[in-house]
Amino acid sequence: MTGLNVKVKTEEQIAAEQAWYESDKVWLVHKDGFSLATVVRTEAGSLPEGKVRIKMEHDGTVLDVDEDDIEKANPPSYDRSEDLASLLYLNESSVMHCLRQRYGGNLIHTYAGPNMVVINPLSMPSMYSEKVMNMFKGCRREDSAPHIYSVAQSAYRNLLTTRQDQSIVLLGRSGSGKTTNCQHLVQYLVCIAGSTGKIFSAEKWQAVYTILEAFGSSSTTINTNASHFSHVVSLDFDQAGQVASASIQTMLLEKLRVSRRPEGESTFNVFYYMMVGADSSLRTELHFNHLAENSAFGILPQSKPEDKQRSLQQFTKLQAAMKVLGISSEEQKALWLILGAIYHLGAAGATKDGDEVGRRQFARHEWAQKAAYLLGCTLEELSSSIFKHQAKGLQHSTSFRGPPDEASQGDGLGPKVTALECLEAMASGLYSELFTLVISLINRALKSSQHSLCSLLIVDTPGFQNPRLAHQQRGATFEELCHNYTQERLQTLFHERTFVKELERYKEENIELALDDIESNTSLSVAVIDQASTQATLVRTLARTDEARGLLWLMEEEAVQPGGSEETMLERLFSYYGSAQGENKGANLLLRGEKPHLFLLGHSHGTNWVEYNTQGWLNHAKHNPAAQNAATLLQDSQKKNISALFMGRASGATVLSGSIAGLEGSSQLALRRATSMRKTFTTGVAAVKKKSLCIQVKLQVDALIDMVRRSKVHFVHCLLPKVEAVGGGDYRMAHGESPDSGLMTLDVSLLRAQLRGSKLLDALRIYRQGYPDHMVFSEFRRRFDVLAPHLTKKYGRHYIVTDEKRAVEELLESLELEKSNYHMGLSRVFFRAGILSRLEEQRDFQTRRNISLFQAACRGYLARQAFKKRKIQDLAIRCIQKNIKKNRGVKDWPWWKLFTTVRPLIEVQLTEEQIRGKDEEIQQLKQKLEKVEKERNELRLNSDRLESRITELSAELADERNTGESASQLLETETSERLRLEKDMKDLQVKFDSMKKEMESMEMEVMEARLIRASELSGEVEDDETGGEWRLKYERAIREIEFTKKRLQQELDDKLEVEQQNKRQLERRISDLEADYEESQRNIQQLKKKAQRLTAELQDTKLHLEGQQSRNHDLEKKQRKFDSELSAAQDEVQRERSLREKLAREKDVLTGEVFGLRQQLEDKDLEACAVNLKLEQLEAEVQDLNSQESKDEASLAKVKKQLRDLEAKVKDQEEELDEQAGTIQMLEQGKLRLEMEMERLRQTHSKEIESKDEEVEEIRQSCSKKLKQMEVQLEEEYDEKQKVLKEKRELESNFLSVQDQVRGGDIEVEKRLRKDLKRTKALLADAQIMLDHIKNNAPSKREIAQLKNQLEESEFTCAAAVKARKSMEVEIEDLHVQMEDISKTKQALEEQLSRLQREKNDLQSRMEEDQEDFNELMKKHKAAVAQSAQNLAQISDLQAQLEDALKEKQEIQEKMQALQSQMEFQEQSMVEKSLVSRQEAKCRELETKLEFEKTQVKRLESHLARLKENLEKLTEERDQRSSSEIREKEQNKRLQRQIRDIKEEMAELAKKEAEASRKKHELEMDIESLEAANQSLQADLKLAFKRIGDLQAAIEDEMESDDNEDLINSLQDMVTKYQKRKNKIQGDSNTDSEVEDHVEGVKSWLSKNKGSTKNLSDDGSLKSFSPPSQRRYLFDRSDEEEEEEEKEEGGASLHYPRYRYNTNVKGRDGEDKPYETAS
After folding, report:
1. Which strands sit side by side in the sheet containing 51-56, from one edge to the other?
2. By the 8 A CB rule, do 1638 and 1588 touch?
3. Of 773-787, 833-847, 1180-1194, 1376-1390, which range is least confident?
4. How far, in Å, CA of 519 to CA of 498, rounded?
């Protein structure tokens, strides 16, 4: 946005920019970076669609490239722009070009909207000196250059103005300079803000970072001095803006780096410093005289001499830093002892599992003895702390809520812990306790008891770690995953603050903002790591669930599983978040690695892929008792200095759950931060999971994010320039070597990946297009009403106004801001970027002016008071002088002497009484003051005690509330678990019931099988007569069935062949449609990219146009201001002229008065001379009289009397002379004052005339410049309008082509769908015809009646199929209706589109006409400009003449001054008067000419104003047309959306059609199976009938024999049991007449042979059989009975084979009961 003053460009700059715009420069994006090129204009149709011809700038090569591969370039004036948001065209290549140009010029800092971008310079020490700090002190962000100090100053200024907590978050990769910038931020704030008593100095903070670097940093392959912990620097400020106290909180320390680290990396720096830098006494005490050759921890002394020299210097610096922070020698000694013990533990080592010793112990006991001595314990105590408590294996998290026996089982099944792992756990535990102690000692030196108001937090975390970036062939470790996770969470916070919060605020305030689709944040990659279960996961069980959880939760679960491993953990992780088949990196952020234990995770929106190695990760989730015993070992140490330090720490809560250190501090803000972090660890799931080592990582980051989220966040993006230059960079920075030219180059691909990962371009785009600055109505009115004094008088500076919005609108109207620069919300006013800073600058200017006026008023008042005091002093002096004269006259008077003697004695008595009364009052006031002070101290103590009690109670209340919440969540979890178990129990009960029924049915089948077997063994005899008849029927039925089967098989084969052909056609069509769909998707993606690019360019053009409009608005404001100043100057000249005339008249009057006073003075002088002569005569007479001694006394008395009379007269005359002299003196003073006043007025008048002449000259020059600028601007706007019209025509052509493509594609798809629908209808009709044919050609009605009940299920199935077919027909009809509606809608849309096209053509024709009018106006405007130039030339000539006349006038005034002493002669000289009158007439003539020229200038200005109005109208029409184009584009988008919906509906129709064909195929298969079952049932039935006939014949033959009685009895028993069975089972009403005939025949045969049917009618007469599908023959005869019958018959009976068929029985409950029928 434009600043307050518009920077005027020279003609050369304007010409260069015009040439740049005409050349159409672009960036060609390729894999190696980007290159500058020029677009070559070609004829339409010479290139394929989407191609552009360009010419490379560096070699002149002409290439044809895709439109998507080029981006617009900015003019050269933007190459080193300080703010990336001010670029004319905002794209990736332009941003990288700007950063590269600035980096090449040693400008490493760049604004990116509200954020800051810093590229690590690797060596720039002179940029951070104290002199540079003072340059930024007190400056606003808009007035300062980009620098890390400007970020600190901006945060500090916001803290002072808003009294709100601020925080600065540093983002970036490892080695990008975050820790260095953090140090610069802290040093600047401490240096600029200062502290009370200077307790926080730069030296102290340098010492702090020296200690942190030694204990928390080491060398890696990516960074020579990488931090391995996250920390937050908290600076608390008081009311005056000074640093009151400070503290440091640390988290996520890589404590395992002490014992284990990746290959090629070192341990913490302090070990190397200590091994080299310790003096002889310390080396002896630490047993460092002989160092070990090898170490289990890999801590070996340095071999290079330069490394040793550097370590020696750093150790000396470290000791000095500890001394600065007040760490005593005993405390330092304790630190060295613990470090030495860790070293000796590594040298001692541990035995391997399975050796001959068979137990865990030290490998070298002499080194272990040294470690035990340094720790202040015995070797046995040390060994037991490390190894003895490992019998049960590793202990798991205390949040495991299972029974103890399950835990022990899990531990027993887990992997056995090795001795080396126990040793490593002890070393890491010791170093963790040591690091926490160091942080406590630092905070002890930084804390203060002063009252603080608000805080400023600086967050520094290790950057993104990627071993592949350093060309290492290893996977990343778990610690690197934790650091990357922290950076991802901070990136998510940046996305939330930059995008989500802004868009939500716009939505709340009803602000419509056309923004591009903002991509989602990094929530997916974060969820892969930390996503918790949606169900309550407070109660941990050993059962794996299918609900998605993050890696940290899976690690914790797999650690307690009996068979848990890294492989199963990875499999579960990929089952939750893995990519599907065919997806790539872009679709998913989690991929499998080349090996089973590797996986890839895409950080920073998939721009930074890191490969992780999960081997040994489950050990991070297991508690090792050795690490927990480290704190106990240090507290119980025999060395007093060690035990005192750690016992003191054990009493205070300085560590939160063993993870966050540095929670010391007694100030209110420190307590608030500690309470916030504790709340994070005691709320919800955290209350139970806070002891879990994996979940602690998430909770620590949650606490950090929650603390930062409560403040106003300032983000600093640190970028890595290239990977090769990282090594050794910090050392060069420390020594201040000059930068190498090779270091100032950038890796473009690395820079592009960092920019894409941080989403800086999207942030800049929303910053440019949106309203980033906003204020509440009341706050804005109270802050900026100083710019509108008339509104201040109107509202009277009330704190609350009834209608704040209306008041703000009036204020903005009075400020004459352009409408596009601000937007009124519901509760606050929003501004474009830079507008609020302009208002602040205007406010500062007005405030300075008001303060200057106030100071002038105060000084005038003080001067008047001083003048009054001087007048009083003058009066007092005169009074004193008169009193002294009187006192000299009465000092010898006796009464006066008596009065002066008695008066003091009276006053002394009165004074003593007054003094006594005052002393008593003073004593009473002192007593009251002491009492009030005492009460105040008591109240202060009470308030402090109550505040501390309140904080304690609030902390306890928070803990209780969190405990209650966790308990309630536990209760909810158990309730949900109970409900789930109840549901499972119900499901199991239902399954149990169904299984029970199945078991009963199986038992019935077994029993029936036994009955059938008994019936077969009973013997059967054939009857030829009845058998022949049934055999003929059976054979006829068999032939009919075979014929029907063949016919159905033939029809089925034909139908199957047709269906297969249709299937092949559909498959081909589907493949074609899929290819078309993929092609359309690719085209859509290309069009989408193109639309995004065009939208971005359009937004850039729109912003540029708004900038031009605001610049024109400012120019118009300046023009109006110039006009008002010109009219004011003319009024001033007129007023000066009237004052001159008035002064001339007053001068004439005063001259006459002076002449009269001179005459009076001469008369008085003559009188004085006469009096003096007379006095001399009298004195002579007195002398004569004195000489006459002979005269008598009478004459002497007479003479004395005359003498007294004469003396009285002389005194009177002297007094008169004194008065006259005073009068003369006053007149002379008045004359002198008047002359001085006239001289001063003359000089001021001449100066004002000169200044007015200079102003007129400047105004003339500025007018000419402004006219030239306006001409240039009008030409630029004309060219821009031509460009916009050209782009509009191109977009219209593209739109028409895309529309034709879409219309053609829609017609083809609709035709294809209509054909498919007709074909489907034909297939369904054919299926119906086939079903009717099958029904018509079925067996005869009699046979169908016999098989009717057996085919009941198939009929039901067919009915269901018919219903499904009807429903499908209904759906197809609905789809037809929908298709017709869609076609109607499509026709309406086409008509609307054609109407819009016609309107567009009309608008285009009107635009062309307006363009012609505009060209004519431009011609008129150019003619008017030429005429105004001529008029300006005439005005300059007249001004020259006016200057000559003014010179002549000045000469005349000088002559008048020279002739003032001879004013008497001037009155007589008529010649001089005539000269003066001629000169005055000449001056008046020149003034009339000047007024005439001014009227001409005003007329030209009015003409120019009319031209501006015409231009504004044209711009408004252009805006209207652009808005209509935008509406047309929106209509096109809406049509495309409708077409897309139609396509989706057609796809759904195709799916439904496929489903219908699938159901049809299934029904056909069911029909075939039922037909087969029907045939088998018919065959079984025929066989059963035949067997019945044979059985009857055999029974008749047997009846003739002697043993027929037993057979009749058995048949009677069978019929009786059949009767009972039939009574139990109620069947269908339909009966089989043929079966009933057989039953009746059996009954008649029995009655004939036995003579009666009495036994058969006991339970009633026999009823008809139920249909075969619902009844079965039951022969309840056991196997033993059958065997007995066979024995009795002696094998005479025949044994027939058993035939069985299965069917179903419908019972009373409606369930199907399978049974078998045999005969």
Report:
1. 62-66, 51-56, 33-39, 25-30, 70-72
2. yes
3. 1180-1194
4. 12
For residue 173, what are the β-bridge partners?
A: 464
Q: Report percent pLDDT > 90 for the chain.
A: 16
Handedness of CA 668, 669, 674, 679 (dihedral sign): positive
| Cα–Cα nearest to 1592, from 1609, 1608, 1572 | 1608
For the beta carbon of residue 1496, count every other beta carbon within 10 angstroms: 15
Cβ–Cβ under 8 Å, residues 1644 and 980: no
Is there a contact between 1718 and 1699 (Cβ–Cβ < 8 Å)?
Answer: yes
d(CA 506, CA 498): 12
Per-residue model confidence as pLDDT tens digits over 524-545? 888 888 887 665 444 444 445 6
**Nearest-angstrom CA–CA distance, 264 and 219:** 9
* Helix, strand, or coil (residue 1692): coil
Strands 166-172 and 454-460, how do they pair? parallel
Return the H-helix or E-strand segment holding 100: helix 92-104
Helix (H, G, I), strand (E, B) or coil at 64: strand
Q: Is the dihedral of CA 1293, 1295, 1296, 1300 positive or negative?
A: positive
Torsion, CA 821, CA 822, CA 823, CA 824, rounded to 10:
-160
725 contacts 688 by C-beta, under 8 angstroms: no
Determine the Cα angle at 600 with ends 598 and 605, to 5°.
Answer: 165
Tell me which H or E stretch contains 232. strand 230-237
Length of the chain: 1719
Which stretch of DSSP H or E encloses residue 250? strand 243-251
User: Positive or negative CA dihedral for 1249, 1254, 1260, 1263?
Assistant: negative
Specify the amino acid at residue 670: A
Q: Which amino acid is at 248?
A: I
For CA atoms 938, 940, 945, 950, the dihedral sign is: positive
Contact indicator for 98, 75 with CB cutoff of 8 Å: no
Across the beta sheet with 822-824, the strand order is: 773-776, 828-831, 822-824
Is the separation of the CB atoms in 1493 and 1438 below 8 Å? yes
For residue 265, give the nearest of 480, 455, 508 by alpha carbon: 480
pLDDT of residue 1350: 56
Closest-CA residue to 629 (of 448, 810, 417, 429): 429
- Pairing, β 51-56 against β 115-119: unpaired
Tokens of 989: 């009960």
Question: Is the pLDDT at 142 greater than 70, yes or no?
Answer: yes
How far from 1342 is each of 1581, 1633, 1634, CA to CA, in Å?
15, 11, 11
| Helices 329-348, 269-277: crossing angle, 10 deg rounding | 100
Rg (CA), the chain: 55
